[in-house]
Each structure stands twice: as C-alpha cells, then as structure tokens.
Amino acid sequence: MEYEYRQIQRPKYDCLLFDLDDTLYPLSSGLAAAVLRNIQDYMIEKLGIEESKIPDLCNLLYKNYGTTMAGLRAIGYDFDYDEYHSFVHGRLPYENLKPDSVLRSLLLSLPQRKVIFTNADKIHAIKALSKLGLEDCFEGIICFETLNPTHKHAASDDEDEIEFLGTNQSNGSSSTYSPRKIFDIIGHCSQTNAVVSSGLPKTPIVCKPSESAIERALKIANIDPARTLFFEDSLRNIQSGKRIGLDTVGKSQRVKVSDYALESIHNLREAIPELWEAEKLAEVNYSGVPLEASVIA
Ligand SMILES: [Mg+2]
C-alpha cells in the first residue's frame, strides 16, 4: 500500500510592515537632510527659539521623544500640527524621488499583506509614495494622523489621546509643567549629565519608537507581530519592534540588531527569498503504513 501524505506548512510571515522615509528610498535622495533643515527653520521662525540652542535642542528632543515635534510639544511649545507638517514637508525636494519600477515589481509580486507605518503626516506619505510610483502597492498607511487622531488642529485635545499612551498615564502627566513655561531640557540634561534622561515631561504625541505607538499601529491594522516582518532604517525603531515581537529588516550590515539586513530594498529577493515561497507543500511518502483514514482506495 502506497500513498502520499501532504502537509501544508504556513509561510512564516503574512504581513510586511514598511517604514517609508529612508527605507523605501535611499538617504542619498536628500529628503532627510531637508527635513532636518526645515525643522530647524520652523523652530527659529515660528517658535522663536534662539538659533544657538537649536543643535543641542534638536538632538535632545529627537533622542528623548522619537521626533523633534513630539519633544517640542512635551517641553511646552504649542503649535498647529498641520502647519508644522506643511512647513517641514512642503518644501522638500520631492523631485529627487523617481518612480522605482524595480521596487514596484518586487512589492507587487509579494503575496503578503503590505502596510506603511510612518511617523510622517498623511500628505507627505501619499506624495512620497506617489513620486516613487508605489501608491497602489500597499493595503494601507499608518501615519501621524492615524496615531494622533484628536490632535489635528490644536493641543487642546490631549485628554482624548492620552489613553493611547497606556500604563497609568493620566491627564495629570501632561501637565507636570506649565503650558506657559518652556521646560529647559538642555539645562535638565546637563545637570543629570545624560543625553537620554529620566524625569522629563511627557509628550501627548504618539510616534515610533515608543512601544505603545507600535502596538497601537499593529492593533489598528489588525497585524499579528509574530507573523510580521518590519522594515526600518532606524535602529531604535528596530529595537522597539523586536521588543514587541516583530521580526525586523534593517537597512545596513553595520549593526547586527535586526533579523535581516539589506544594503538596499532592491536586494529583497536575494536576501529573503522565502518571502516568495507560497504555501509550502511538504510531501511525505509512506509505504505500507496502515493509516486507514488517510488512504485513498
Ligand atoms: Mg525611516
């Protein structure tokens, strides 16, 4: 008696979660450098911050809060989020982003769900994807507005949004400083002699690399971290992703933190060919094994 027994193995991943900036296009496009310049200009022109303080301030805010914007809100600056995003992204050299037909083909040939997860705003995400010719390659976009839905216009909606931060955050935690007084983070960190410091005011903004932000994004998009591969250029975002159970793809070989590393997203097929394997049929041949229920007479 001979028969074949076929066992279906599920592919390891059913969802691919992609960061956008500097992940789906190279750093050499110059967008990241322009974003940094625009943020600094915004801080000087719109918030009246002294130019000499900008480098230290940007560094501390970015390191402690994930984005400069989140840090500015935390230390007491109040501004319109749409205006900030439009100032920072509105003047970017989008012409440097060209349609990427190689990446497009790769993405369209992958059988998994594909979702964008960016700290940037919706307008920037859609514009960048469109310039890259990738606007129809993804099931959805998780962006600033997705994670901060009540903050569209002003800071007065903090109360609704704070709950997303979880872990005993209360409304009081965002008002440990007076809104009229700017928290001196440079002075605070020089006293504690640390770049990343404890005892800082909380930000109402939800963004990577906060683990609660990533968890919130996964919940919104109905993503199981155990079956998802997360593509990121930022080391700390990769570290946070790993802590909540995502497998990760970093962009460089320099630091062996991620599960996979790519020099360029274009090398995806060579680096992770198993992504293209459809349901694997593991064929097992039996001879003369009397498993009646499996025998086809
Ligand atoms: Mg990035």
UniProtKB/TrEMBL annotation:
It comes from the Eukaryota. InterPro entries: HAD-like_sf (IPR036412), HAD-SF_hydro_IA (IPR006439), HAD_2 (IPR041492), HAD_sf (IPR023214), Pyr-5-nucltdase (IPR010237). Pfam families: HAD_2. SUPFAM superfamilies: HAD-like. This is Uncharacterized protein.
